[in-house]
């Protein structure tokens, strides 16, 4: 004798309600339907077994089973309808932060160097690099900076203890400017030349907010049969406007470099005070940006060029100094501490 | 160089306001770096470039002002061209024994001197120029030095043995106490002024105390001489004594001004100290032939990009004191004796341009030449794309010091014997050229972690120095990871070897089209059993590993620090050329997983090697998706789970084919790796 006969559907309705409440997906709902109305369900079993029941129970059980079946079907349909309109997923908290991604960055000096180079590349300049450990011959002699001359004073230099592999080219040193690469290129090539030389340079300066014994320079050299001081002015003015903005005012001030004649320093109107004088420009109203000039005939002759036939200009600038101006950095040492909280700002 | 404006006006009656004057000078190349107040009124602070020693005097600056304003220069009274008495008398004997070190020596013996303070106006002018007044005789020598740029010296004549002045090299070991009170032992390359017995002054640098003018001095010998710039420079450096005098001699004085300055000082001594010239001795003067430069206007205009005519150039050069002849396309320019820097044609271009004003030279853009001849930019762009690649992988670029300390090298296990040292470091912290990027990057890690940053992932691209390859400096790529990689509310990633290896492989896959492989090999800086050599298609390209605990401790680093360094030239040598692309298969793969348990002595590389070999080309994609050690596997063993994609580019594989192959792979692992299938 089946249970249904003795305890018809006891607790079945409660079980159905509980299962239904748990069923939040169409799949789960179907499982509930199978369990409570399917072929193997209690209700189906009861209806199927009606014939075996005593006649007095038959009508009651049958009626009860049919009631449950109808009620269950109605509730399932309701729930199905509710599920169909309910959102498929719980609402997102879109205010939570996104998944962290590793973000790499280029160093501000690299970025500034690139920005500088990018201004000249469209003018047909090629980028060439040279060694940081250099011979006296390239760093000084061929650049018209004689030994025992006060003009070397501006180029205090680190010398290496290591013996020179080519004694004829003098001692080994850490280059104090990128200019020796000019000589290396001119010695192996003929004009026309338009080159840019980025790189590290070294000078024995104690570290302070505006000095470092290691910094970066970009050097430029143009040699052909016609390039003049007027071209130098035009190219550098265009460069400064490209780098610092169209309204940048520049001035060329006579100066002395052993390897150029005439020589000039280039200033731009102070970006902070616009020329009236402030602490950024040392009350001068102008900021010194770079040095330049027409390549000295002695330099041209030294590499075997005929200075009556070829001429051109050279320029050089400190990358950190320009990066400091562009980004308002007050202390050059920040560039070499590599604090990621500084680097990640760029 | 300090120039009181009122003193300047004695020689050029400029009415320009000091600020305007400063601007004009600055724009002519004589930079005024400041204007100071003094009891004498405004004082210009000038920065004189080493090529222009003629600007190291009031008259020299006045000459420039006159040239810029078109005014006449007044020369200092009395007339500077009084002929010198030629014949040396017995009262004063001068001999130049080293004509290379001293080309001219003028001595004047003055009698009847009364030592007293100089007049107030003179003291004020000296003070405004930064020179301390001493007494009338010394002050006059300094005054004339400032006025004319010719250094002078006064000896007490009664303290010179035999009234004799010898210009000679010191005898090694001779001693001299200088006016600044320092006692020097002289070497044989130092040029001295000596009396008949001993050195009394270091030529062109500083006098000695033994012959100094004192309160009781009655007779002086006034020295005005031309000393060799190189000799003075070496001496001043050797003695560590740079003086107003040596500064001017090093840069070169006006040889025509030696006598003039002596005459000028003698006149002032007569006026201010009662001195009467008793004897004059002048030795070694040879008339210098003036330098004449031929200037081609055409050439100059091509050089400057100007269209200047002969009158423009003539006027500019004449104002600067040149005598100019000719008015056609070629000028003959006679250079004045005080312009030692004008020696060739191009030197004149600058002076013409300066006087005309650089701002009046046009500015124009040259035509861009077609093509780039050598394509040198390639190397730079390759390095630059390597930098960008590193940044795209989540690494931040660092630039660290290329100069290190002994301690830096030692900490990282590098031998000091191979170190390339600076001969003249400014600090022992930065005295050795880096043999590796690791020291600098470790310092950067320390800098960050000690400041509370949770984790860092840095790279640097830069040259390192190898004693054997000098002066070449191979480029290296250093990568360092430490602390937390990424942490957010969904989890975190720690820094470990596999993350480092993953980064390196991503890098080489993108750059060279293949991942790096690693073989265990300890490095000087790695913890034992934690180092590897990295290979790319069998070529060793670098090293990687865990920084040794002793190194980390020395740097106060508590976290593990993972470091790798790659040789950039080797990476670039294997860089991908043109990529030949394949269309991906459109047929779906058959996916199967495979789990095996192997003994710890069997490396992963062995297992995967056998697997790939057995799978052949049909096992197109093999991925390790789990590695497990623990209770589920026997002690001394670990399990690996691979996900395999079977695929034939040309046809669909049948389930039977795949099952057979999959079983064969399992069998191979059992036989050759003593694996157990799970």
How would you spell out the order of helices and strands of chain A? HHHHHHEEHEHEEHEEEHEHHH
- Runs of chain B in which pLDDT lies below 50 for 5 or more consecutive residues are 79-84
* Terminal CA distance of chain A: 84 Å
Radius of gyration of chain A: 42 Å
Strand proportion of chain B, as a percent range, falls in 25-35%
Q: How many structural domains of chain B?
A: 5
Multimeric status of the protein:
heterodimer
Largest interface: A-B, 95 and 99 residues
Using the CA coordinates, give the radius of gyration of chain B. Answer: 40 Å
Q: Keyphrases for this structure?
A:
heterodimer; A: 346 residues; alpha+beta; BirA Bifunctional Protein, domain 2; 2 domains; 7-stranded mixed β-sheet; two-stranded antiparallel ribbon; disordered N terminus; B: 678 residues; Phenylalanyl-tRNA Synthetase, Chain B, domain 1; Phenylalanyl-tRNA Synthetase, Chain B, domain 3; 5 domains; 8-stranded mixed β-sheet; 5-stranded mixed β-sheet; 32 strands; 27% strand
Q: Can you give me a brief rundown of this structure?
A:
With 346 residues, chain A is of the alpha+beta class. Chain A has helices at residues 3-6, 12-22, 26-37, 42-48, 55-85, 108-120, 136-139, 180-188, 229-244, 297-302, 319-327, 334-337, 340-343; strands at residues 126-127, 133-135, 172-174, 193-202, 214-224, 250-255, 260-269, 286-295, 311-318.
What's the arrangement of secondary structure elements?
The complex is a heterodimer of chains A (346) and B (678).
Chain A: H1 3-6, H2 12-22, H3 26-37, H4 42-48, H5 55-85, H6 108-120, E1 126-127, E2 133-135, H7 136-139, E3 172-174, H8 180-188, E4 193-202, E5 214-224, H9 229-244, E6 250-255, E7 260-269, E8 286-295, H10 297-302, E9 311-318, H11 319-327, H12 334-337, H13 340-343
Parallel strand pairs in A: 1-4
Antiparallel strand pairs in A: 2-3, 4-5, 5-9, 6-7, 7-8, 8-9
Helix pairs in contact in A: 2-3, 3-5, 4-5, 6-11
Chain B: E1 2-4, H1 5-9, H2 18-26, E2 31-36, E3 43-47, H3 58-69, E4 93-96, E5 102-111, H4 120-128, H5 136-148, E6 152-156, E7 164-169, E8 175-177, E9 183-185, E10 191-194, E11 199-202, E12 206-207, E13 220-227, H6 229-239, H7 244-251, H8 257-273, E14 276-283, E15 292-296, H9 297-304, H10 310-319, E16 323-325, E17 330-334, H11 345-356, H12 377-392, E18 396-397, E19 403-404, H13 406-411, E20 420-421, E21 432-433, H14 438-450, E22 455-463, E23 475-488, E24 491-494, H15 497-512, E25 517-520, E26 526-536, E27 539-547, H16 549-554, E28 561-567, H17 568-573, E29 590-599, H18 604-615, E30 619-628, E31 637-646, H19 655-673, E32 676-677
Parallel strand pairs in B: 4-7, 18-22
Antiparallel strand pairs in B: 1-3, 2-3, 5-13, 5-14, 6-13, 7-10, 8-9, 10-11, 11-12, 15-17, 16-17, 19-21, 20-21, 22-23, 23-24, 23-28, 25-26, 26-27, 27-28, 29-31, 29-32, 30-31
């Amino acid at each position: 004798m089946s249970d249904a006969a003795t305890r018809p559907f006891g607790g079945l309705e409660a079980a159905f309600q509980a299962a239904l409440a748990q069923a939040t997906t169409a799949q789960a709902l179907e499982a509930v339907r199978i369990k409570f109305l399917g072929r193997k369900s209690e209700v189906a079993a009861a209806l199927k077994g009606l014939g075996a029941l005593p006649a007095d129970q038959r009508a009651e059980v049958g009626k009860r089973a049919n009631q449950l079946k109808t009620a269950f079907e109605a509730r399932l349909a309701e729930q199905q309808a509710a599920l169909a309109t309910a959102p498929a997923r719980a609402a997102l908290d879109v205010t939570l932060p996104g998944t962290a991604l590793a973000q790499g960055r280029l160093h501000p000096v690299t970025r500034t160097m690139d920005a500088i180079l990018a201004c000249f590349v469209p003018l047909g300049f090629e980028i060439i690099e040279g060694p940081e450990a250099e011979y006296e011959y390239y760093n000084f002699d061929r650049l018209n900076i004689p030994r025992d001359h006060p003009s070397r004073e501006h180029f205090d230099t680190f010398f290496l203890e290591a013996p020179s592999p080519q004694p004829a080219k003098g001692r080994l040193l850490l280059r104090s400017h990128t200019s020796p690469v000019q000589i290396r290129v001119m010695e192996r090539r003929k004009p026309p030349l338009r080159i840019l030389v980025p790189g590290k340079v070294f000078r024995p300066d104690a570290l302070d907010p505006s000095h470092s014994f290691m910094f970066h320079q970009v050097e430029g050299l143009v040699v052909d049969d016609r390039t003049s001081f007027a071209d130098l002015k035009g190219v550098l003015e265009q460069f400064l406007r490209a780098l610092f903005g169209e309204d940048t005012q520049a001035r060329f001030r006579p100066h002395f470099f052993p390897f150029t004649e005439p020589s000039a320093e280039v200033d731009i109107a102070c970006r902070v005070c616009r020329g009236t004088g402030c602490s950024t420009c040392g009350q001068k109203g102008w900021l010194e940006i770079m040095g330049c000039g027409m390549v000295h005939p002695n330099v041209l002759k030294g590499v075997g060029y005929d200075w009556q036939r070829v001429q051109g200009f050279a320029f050089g600038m400190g990358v950190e100094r320009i990066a400091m101006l562009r980004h308002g950095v007050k202390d050059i040492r920040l560039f070499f501490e590599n604090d990621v909280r500084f680097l990640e700002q760029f | 160089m300090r120039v009181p404006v009122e003193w300047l006006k004695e020689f050029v009656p400029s009415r320009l306001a000091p600020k305007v004057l400063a601007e004009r000078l600055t724009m002519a190349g004589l930079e005024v770096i400041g204007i100071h107040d003094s009891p004498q009124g405004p004082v210009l602070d000038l920065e004189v470039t080493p090529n222009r020693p003629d600007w190291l005097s009031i008259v020299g600056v006045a000459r420039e002002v006159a040239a810029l304003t078109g005014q006449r220069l007044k020369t200092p009274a009395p007339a500077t061209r009084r002929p010198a008495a030629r014949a040396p008398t017995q009262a004063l004997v001068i001999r130049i024994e080293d004509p290379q070190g001293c080309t001219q020596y003028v001595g004047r013996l003055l009698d009847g001197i009364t030592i007293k303070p100089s007049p107030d106006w003179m003291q004020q002018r000296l003070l405004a120029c930064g020179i301390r007044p001493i007494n009338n005789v010394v002050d006059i020598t300094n005054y004339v030095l400032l006025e004319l740029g010719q250094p002078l010296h006064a000896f007490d004549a009664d303290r010179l043995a035999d009234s004799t002045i010898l210009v000679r090299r010191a005898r090694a070991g001779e001693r001299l106490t200088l006016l600044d009170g320092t006692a020097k032992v002289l070497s044989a390359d130092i040029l001295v002024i000596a009396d008949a017995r001993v050195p009394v002054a270091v030529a062109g640098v500083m006098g000695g105390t033994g012959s100094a003018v004192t309160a009781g001095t009655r007779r002086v010998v006034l020295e005005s001489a031309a000393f060799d710039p190189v000799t003075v420079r070496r001496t001043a450096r050797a003695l560590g004594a740079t003086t107003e005098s040596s500064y001017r001699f090093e840069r070169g004085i006006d040889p025509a001004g030696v006598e003039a300055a002596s005459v000028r000082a003698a006149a002032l001594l007569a006026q201010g100290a009662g001195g009467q010239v008793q004897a004059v001795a002048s030795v070694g003067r040879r008339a210098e032939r003036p330098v004449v430069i031929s200037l081609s206007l055409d050439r100059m205009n091509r050089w400057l990009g100007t269209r200047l005519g002969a009158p423009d150039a003539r006027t500019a050069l004449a104002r600067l004191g040149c005598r100019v002849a000719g008015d056609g396309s070629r000028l003959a320019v006679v250079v004045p004796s005080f312009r030692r820097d004008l020696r060739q044609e191009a030197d004149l271009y600058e002076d013409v341009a300066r006087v005309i004003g650089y701002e009046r030279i046009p500015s124009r853009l040259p035509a861009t030449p077609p093509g780039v001849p050598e394509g040198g930019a390639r190397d730079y762009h390759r390095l630059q794309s390597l930098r960008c690649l590193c940044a795209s992988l989540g690494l931040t670029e660092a630039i660290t010091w290329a100069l290190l300390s002994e301690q830096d090298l030692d900490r990282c296990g590098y031998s000091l014997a191979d170190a390339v040292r600076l001969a003249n470091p400014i600090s022992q912290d930065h005295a050795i050229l880096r043999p590796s990027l690791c020291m600098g990057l470790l310092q950067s890690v320390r800098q960050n972690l000690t400041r509370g940053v949770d984790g860092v992932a840095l790279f640097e691209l830069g040259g390192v120095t190898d004693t054997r390859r000098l002066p070449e400096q191979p480029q290296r790529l250093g990568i360092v990871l430490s602390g937390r990689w990424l942490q957010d509310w969904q989890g975190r990633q720690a820094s470990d070897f596999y993350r480092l290896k993953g980064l390196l492989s991503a890098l080489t896959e993108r750059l060279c089209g293949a991942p790096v492989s690693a073989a265990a090999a300890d490095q000087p800086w790695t913890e034992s059993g934690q180092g590897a050599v990295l290979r790319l298609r069998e070529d060793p390209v670098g090293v990687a590993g865990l920084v040794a605990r002793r190194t980390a401790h020395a740097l106060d680093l508590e976290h593990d620090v993972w470091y790798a360094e790659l040789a950039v030239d080797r990476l670039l040598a294997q860089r991908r050329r043109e990529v030949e692309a394949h269309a991906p298969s459109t047929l779906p793969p058959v996916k199967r997983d495979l789990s095996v348990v192997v003994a710890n002595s069997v490396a992963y590389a062995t297992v995967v090697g056998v697997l790939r070999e057995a799978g052949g080309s049909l096992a197109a994609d093999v991925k390790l998706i789990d590695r497990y050690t623990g209770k589920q596997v026997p002690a001394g063993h670990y399990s690996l789970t691979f996900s395999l994609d079977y695929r034939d580019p040309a046809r669909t594989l049948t389930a039977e084919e795949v099952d057979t192959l999959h079983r064969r792979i399992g069998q191979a692992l059992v036989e050759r790796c003593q694996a157990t299938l799970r």
